[in-house]
Specification:
single chain, about 325 residues, alpha/beta, 9 helices
Length: about 325
Amino acid sequence: MPDVSPPAVRRPGEPVLTALGLAAPAPDPADASPHSFPGGGRWRTEVPSCEGPEALAAVLEESTRLEVPVHRISQGSGVWMLTDAEIAEMVAATAERDVELCLFTGPRGTWDIGAGTRTDAGGAGPRARGHDAVAGCVEDAVRATGLGVRCLLVADEGVLWTLHRARAAGLLPADTTLKVSALVGPVNPASYAVYERLGADSVNVPSDLTPGHLTEIRRVSAAPVDLYVEAPDDLGGYVRMYEVAELIRRAAPVYLKFGLAKAPGIYPYGAHLRELALASARERVRRGRLVLDLLARHGADGEMAPLGSRLPGPLSRFAVSSQRS
């Protein structure tokens, strides 16, 4: 019978370096993640910072033109920065393409009146300050899911646990998924496992984690990793395209996020930032094309999860009580 096994993944520069006696050691199979998405596949794609219907339309148009498959589109300004009509338009547009739409919940500390986030220490960062901020996040979650959104982005452990409890109690749709923001992403396996148990269905880790760090996480958790292949400047500005195949090998199941370095921030978004938002939305898709082309050249593009898939599979959770916790 002919050999139908997939070709071996080629690492960047490998043939030339091998010929020159500079070959790297073979990858250790023990470093590879044993996990994948339900239904098959080890990686999905995400286009972040899609701040409204017009930017969404630009992303969908560009993804068709450049043949960039998109599993998830996320927004960063927050549910509260969109009208009901805008949310409904985004829900309809993504549903037509079978793409998951993820909206950020509520107020965050970096926009609060507290001065701690402006100190050198950073205070509590983007977390929700006080009961009212948590309440705003819950209000956003209820409103968004009522309009058909099924993925919520959170930047606070308490908000995550509260929304998970609400989901478990039937106060939010059972198929709602909760995504942890890069603004508070965990940097060690112990904290990653805690986020999973608090209700996270995917967790955005900081983009400066090493492949070794990702292997450590995969030894304790199967929750999908969200990882910027290219990070915005306020998250470090890292560009890790040549590492993508290794990042997939170590971190699967993983969302490859097509961010954009050297682009001004657009949160909270409004019409005054329109041209910037549209141009950066299109360029994020182009960056995705560059990543996919690189994977194809190295024979590492064959394990993409089916388009339209969105659920994370069985995950470990803390026990949820109906009483106060």
